[in-house]
Amino acid sequence: MQANTQTNIHEDWRGGYESLLQEYDYWIDEIEGEVPRELHGTLFRNGPGLFEINGQPIHHPFDGDGMVCAITFDNGRVHFRNRFVRTEGFLAEQQAGRILYRGVFGTQRSGGWLNNMLDLSLKNIANTNVVYWGEKLLALWEAGKPHRLDPATLETLGADDMGGILSPGPEFAAHPHVDPDVNGSPHLVSFGVHPGLSTVITLYEFDQSGDLLKRHAYRIPGFAFVHDYALTPEHCIFFQNPVDYNPLPYLAGWCAAGQCLKLRRNAPTNILLLPRDPDGPVETVSFQMASIFIFHHANAFVQGEEEIVVDSVCYDDFPVIEPDQDFREIEFSSYPPGRLWRFTINRRTKQVDAQIIESRSCEFPAIHPSHEGRPYRYVFLIGAEQTEGNAPHQAIIKRDLAEGTSHLWSAAPRGFVGEPIFVPRSEQEDDGWVLTLVYDAEHHRSDVVILDGRDLTKGPLARLHLKHHVPYGLHGSFVPQVFGERKA
Ligand code: CO
Fold this sequence. Notes:
Blueprint: H1 6-14, E1 25-27, E2 30-33, E3 41-50, E4 52-53, E5 56-57, E6 65-74, E7 77-84, H2 88-96, H3 112-116, E8 129-133, E9 136-140, E10 147-149, E11 156-159, E12 177-182, E13 185-194, E14 198-206, E15 212-221, E16 230-231, E17 235-240, E18 243-245, H4 248-251, E19 261-263, E20 269-275, E21 283-287, E22 293-303, E23 307-315, E24 339-346, E25 352-358, E26 362-366, E27 378-384, E28 393-400, E29 405-410, E30 415-417, E31 421-424, E32 432-440, E33 445-452, E34 462-465, E35 476-479
Antiparallel strand pairs: 1-7, 2-34, 3-6, 3-35, 4-5, 6-7, 8-9, 9-10, 10-11, 12-13, 13-14, 14-15, 16-17, 17-20, 18-19, 20-21, 22-23, 23-24, 24-25, 26-27, 27-28, 28-29, 30-32, 31-32, 32-33, 33-34
């Protein structure tokens, strides 16, 4: 292999942001290594699939229409399928052949600011996550309703209001967490955020059959931009970073809603401990974070009588792609890297201890599902090949939190990794498979990569070559079920 220079890396990386227009169904037949027969079930993953409408580019990859992939593992064979989520907006734009909606992160309708002024209709693009719960497959996008899909065919069945419970707003976050053990059974715990001058955060808790057990709305002073939360048996924990929202440029049509977010330096972050028991008290701990913005939390757990530990990927700034920038041309070095921090929150003294526990640029933390909300030792993340600064993510990192060590598998020089998903083989915490999609720039195609969670350094157990690339995705989930018939 030859070394890959910075310019080449950027060019290679960009290839993963081409649209995937075709929808496929096939058994994967180009396989290096061997697919473990015990690995049985379906990996669903979601992400933007379309980066232009009839030649008109969208401004930010987060604004791209959702495309769900189902990768089915069945007795050593693996099947691939992808479908766009046929939201109302997707269908309307495909029919019109042009961009009809403004995107949250910067996509504007043509015609400049006059044509965008006071146009607040957003397209639900259903592109952020996909979960299977209560026999429903749901494509999630945090500013609107979930879209229900057929798990066997990925056909879009329509927007879903979760049995009529999505009130007061239609928002349903893209980051549900599964508490593995509430009196012996798992619960899906999720939230919705309705931001404003004060913000309403609604918690939802569902039993295994998808029935709503609890719903409780909390009104929080101030604006909040919240993408994810951390779960413990008693709390849903939100970090309200000091983000200000100035909607005037957005209302005037100059920029998108996501471009009006500004961090307030030297202002405290509020850590909100919202009780899962609606009768419990809300606790708030304010502290000055050094690294001030969070998309994702790795995990949280209770420590002793007074403390809660939260591990989160933090940034020094909120990464905005300005109206005159192209996201494919961004300078990685001008954006701050995400790094993994540990926050130890003392509920009695209201003190917070903050430590960096992984300084390499990283994102998309994943853990053994039985340890969700519980003490844990291992976290898997995507990470940069280089140890300092920001760069495209080319490696899967395993961090041992007990030993304070990391090891990794890297797809460099020409591979770029997506979110790792940990599929447990046993209750031993790292005994399982780490699944990820890797964009291979050399062949302009993607690979499904299966790593052994116990030791990433030995390289993939299997590397399955798809016939095409899959654009960089956001989140997904694995379920042990195999759905329906699959034909070649
Ligand atoms: Co996310």
